[in-house]
Amino acid sequence: MHLFKCSFNSRNKLNYHKKIMAKTLLLYNILSSGINARIIKKVSDVLKNRGFFIEKIETSKVGEAAEKLKNYLNDNKDLEMVVAVGGDGIINEAINVLAYTKIPLGIIPRGTGNAFAKDRKIPFYIKKAVDVFKKENIREIDLGIINDEKYFLMMCSCGFDVKALSALNPNLKKKFKILAYIYHGFKAFFTYKPVEVILRITDEKVLCKGYFCIVSNVRSYGFPMAQIAPDATIDDGVLDICMFMSRDKLSSIANILAIFVKMHINFKNVFYSRTAAEVIIEQDFTEDFNSDNKVPLRVQADGDIYCNLPVKIKVAKKALNIFLP
Ligand SMILES: [Mg+2]
Asked: Is 276 helix (H, G, I), strand (E, B) or coil?
């Protein structure tokens, strides 16, 4: 039936379709800032012309993509690939269903920040992004997993960045795009009262305290220039940890600026490590220098706030198949 559906075009196209014909699911949130019906039609047309047989899952709220994708997979055992059209949020929902299924994920970047696409140099032009969807471009990469239940593709963290993320709302993102992140980043940085967290790397008996901690599997944080985990590799079986141990603003500004030249990892007040062991981050409730310390500190995963501390983080080796240029 699928072949018949594609055979209306021309003899040449039919032959082309017969060669590829990958059953592909498009996943997108129609209400997200970079998506509209015209974009989805364009993506669909490009994929169809290249010989992919597509079906669509349209969502309109956070969390819906993961739920619908899970149900779809239960009913469609012959699905060959998923294409997420959007930003880091919908990609995170997709990986939480696709982990260990071997079904490869393709990405067409249409989000606000597109941090993962920028880090991995995934093309933004639709036809170029689709060019990446070839068998030889499938990579088996690691994911991080929080509390044995939530996967992340890029990073999770706690500190002033989470305050900035929690101030963002969908309308601001839609209206001001990347400027909304920058504005709230600055505002959070200067108004945030640092809360002390304790980091433990279990097998290595490492214990240190600090005020901003990130566990990452990619090099950059938000922007390609912000190389917070400069040694991170996406498929090396380890996660990279970076922790700012100083709480004063001047040191923190120096640390942030040094990220852009990858010098921060040499600073005395920055802890940097790479590990395959379990990482535990918890709040130090014994510290009482500010009242914010009584409130549980929140943790973000791939740019969305996920849970409160404490968290237990592990690497999920070779968990995801993904198309990368
Ligand atoms: Mg790694």
From this structure: coil
